[in-house]
Design goal:
Layout: E1 8-14, E2 26-31, H1 37-52, E3 61-64, E4 71-72, E5 80-81, E6 90-101, E7 107-124, E8 129-135, H2 145-173, H3 182-193, H4 200-207, H5 215-223, H6 227-248, E9 251-254, E10 259-261, H7 268-289, H8 299-313, H9 318-332, H10 339-353, H11 368-379, H12 384-415, H13 420-435, E11 444-448, H14 455-466, E12 470-474, H15 482-485, H16 498-506, E13 512-516, H17 530-537, E14 546-547, E15 554-555, E16 561-566, H18 574-577, E17 581-584, H19 590-608, H20 620-630, H21 637-659, H22 672-679, E18 697-702, E19 711-721, E20 726-729, H23 734-749, E21 768-773, H24 787-799, E22 807-809, E23 812-813, E24 819-820, H25 825-835, E25 839-843, H26 855-860, E26 862-866, H27 869-876
Parallel strand pairs: 1-3, 11-16, 11-17, 12-13, 13-16, 18-22, 20-21, 22-25, 25-26
Antiparallel strand pairs: 1-8, 2-7, 3-6, 4-5, 6-7, 7-8, 9-10, 14-15, 18-19, 19-21, 23-24
Length: 895
Amino acid sequence: MAALTQPALMPVIPLAKGSVLFPGSVLRIPVPSSRGDIPAMLSNVYARASKGSTRVDQIPVVCAPLASEPEKHPELPDADIIKKENIYGYGVMSKITGIQGQNSGEFSLLVQGIGRVSVDKITQDDPFFEGRVRPLVDAIPLQDPSYEDLFAKLKHLSLELVSYLRVSAFLLSASSSSGLNPLLSRRLGMLVSNKTPAEGGVLADFMMNILDASYEDKLQVLAATDAQDRIQKVIALLERQINDMKGNIKITAVSSTSVVPVANRENSDKNKRGARKGPVSALNINSLLGGMGGKGDQSEPDDLEELSKKIESAKLPPEAAKVAEREMKRLKQMNTAQAEYQVIRSYLETLSEIPWSVTTDDPIGPGTLEAARKQLDDDHYGIEKVKKRLLSYLTIVRLMQSANEAVDAQIKQAEKETLEEKIRASGIKVQMLRGKRRTEKAPILILVGPPGVGKTSIARSIATALGRKFHRISLGGVRDEAEIRGHRRTYVAAMPGVIVQGLRKVGVANPVFLLDEIDKLGMANHNGDPSAAMLEVLDPEQNNAFTDHYVGVPIDLSKVLFIATANSLDTIPGPLLDRMETLEFSGYTTLEKRHIALRHLVPKQIRVNGLTEDQLMFNDEVVSKIIESYTRESGVRNLEREIGSVCRAKAVEFVEANDKGQPETYRPQLTLEDLEAILGIEKFEDEIAEKTTQPGIVTGLVAYSSGGNGGILFIEVLDMPGDGSVELTGNLGKVLMESVKVARSWVRNHAYELSLTQDPSENIMKNRSLHVHCPSGAIPKDGPSSGMAQAIALISLLSGRAVPPTMAMTGEFQLSGHVKRVGGIKEKLIGAYRAGVKTVLLPAQNEKDAREVPSEVREGLTIIYVSHIWDAIRQVWPDVQWPAETAFAGVQPRL
């Protein structure tokens, strides 16, 4: 690591309250889950190391203590909010020497102090702290006699303190619980003895790790930039601690084998308290001198006793309790210096923190269903199918609780039977009644739909409506099976999987778990198959005994309400999808978007951007214009962004008008003219209105376009002299290419009936070549639903008859001419309505699918159902006299 000679910007790690790092010392910094700045800082350091081909320990960071108490987070009482004002003005430039993983999902950072710095200014506090620091170098006056006297006194007192620490540790427990054993004390004495006057400041800093000093004293020593001043402060602290130890321990006789203490009875408690300071300091020395210590401190038995109480209060099931009892016995017989000690202890803490029997009482009563319905309606507009399913679940839970209450009453009555001849019979009766209790099995739902339609937010509303705790687990990008099922305890830095960690976080056995982006879960690779690991989690018949590799005992997940989200079902393996109940989210219509915007998005963005509802007003016309001309999506994310842009622009206009003393010039009411000035020119126009009537062009429908919602697809056909070949462009898939070939064959076979040729034996395609193109060539297109549109486009080209531009069609086309059912009707019709289509031709078999389309879309479209291509031809060109009777004519179309 290069020496710092000039002021520079460096990452700053604020230490926990009460922790101070001195130059030359090693400090372990625990990183709880509430500290997001340290992982962000580490990410930055590793990125810099990889770019500059340097080691991580060569990139300096600054460890600075806190000068004031940090604020507590109101929602997370155990999490501190560290602000840049809390950071002390002095710190230590350090290097990262290692990272220690822990089983709880947290980790610790090992740093070694290099040199003292002054933290002049904190320039950044997000995502991690960064500040401008100035190096501080000790100026040692070696020729000054007074300095030599100070150094000699510091050295003498340091050696004296080491001697007293060794004696006090021996007196209390014959070094059985002290970290300062004879070998360690000798090494410490040699280290102090070898220091030279040029290392006076270094020795003073080193002794601060051994002294039992207050936090304020440590801060004063850290801020002492002059070596002499620092040595004087440390000498005063050494004298104070030595005098305290002299008063607490009196040695009357020393032999070659024993040391006999003489102490007053009233001082016995002081002796224990004074000697208890020694092991704590010894642990610090232990890390500095290489980890040669004893078994631990006096508080270790108390900690184990507390851990035993936690395990007992957790009410573990019999199998888990048996494992915990066995591991606790091993832990009590083990030396704390052993590596396996912390492994077992972390495992027992994990067992005690899993909510085996703690549940949230569902507030289900006579008014629960109505309250839940109101909660869902207030939070989300539409999505009636999802709300209906959740309310049915609430109803079932209520009925099961009523049935169980009746069974519990019968059990209590049976247990009261105390007559001698009835005892045996009543016991059997109680067992039979307990078998009648109904066990709740929460449903496992998967919400499927395009981005931005509210899949994630509805899960949080569900938890609120049920009165349960909520936890979100992001599965996007998970590639390791161990992240789901946990690591085995034999591995280094093993930890439970995300399911068990989520249970520990919420602290109850019946929360609502959101499994976000389950369709982006990794598939089988060298780290296992994460999707297969989810099978046991999401199987209602198996997850009552889910086994995490780390925990090793079954955990009941049947009470957890799992809600998964996905944009598409295509990438979800069949066995996993089969275990979930699918609820589909379709894109919002213009009416629904306008309602959502006026009720939720506009008030939110007005509030976020510092305005009030009196200072900015949206009307239906303005919101509709933003929806139709500036967004083209299935959800409302981009709509919220555009509304936010308008709010920010009006906020600037409002402030400028007030700063100029002309508040009357500001207009709170938005107009359509304001939108173009703020958002620019319209990004989207009516796709159909811009199309002119031309033979060979037909409008098809697609279920999902690039925006994640339904839309239209133009099919263009052009012919030219040639040899009968067909050229396909537009990034078409194999299935769509086959639809083109089917349509060409059918048209060529029926050219005479279509009046395209005068001779039934003539090959109309013989001397011409076709070019089929679908615009937007950068977007891949595939699927079996464009066959009918391909055939109509080819007939239109060869007959010279144009297809009405406001007519669109979809359907799977066969060589026999029959039009078969296709999927995605709801998305296709919503996309057609949004694009300006007036008439839609659908397969007759899709009539039932169109019933789920919002009424706004059904009323805005004329939907015609056809079962044969001849039905479609008659609907497209009703004025043409087609052959009255053909062998391929279908049934009459239904409107």
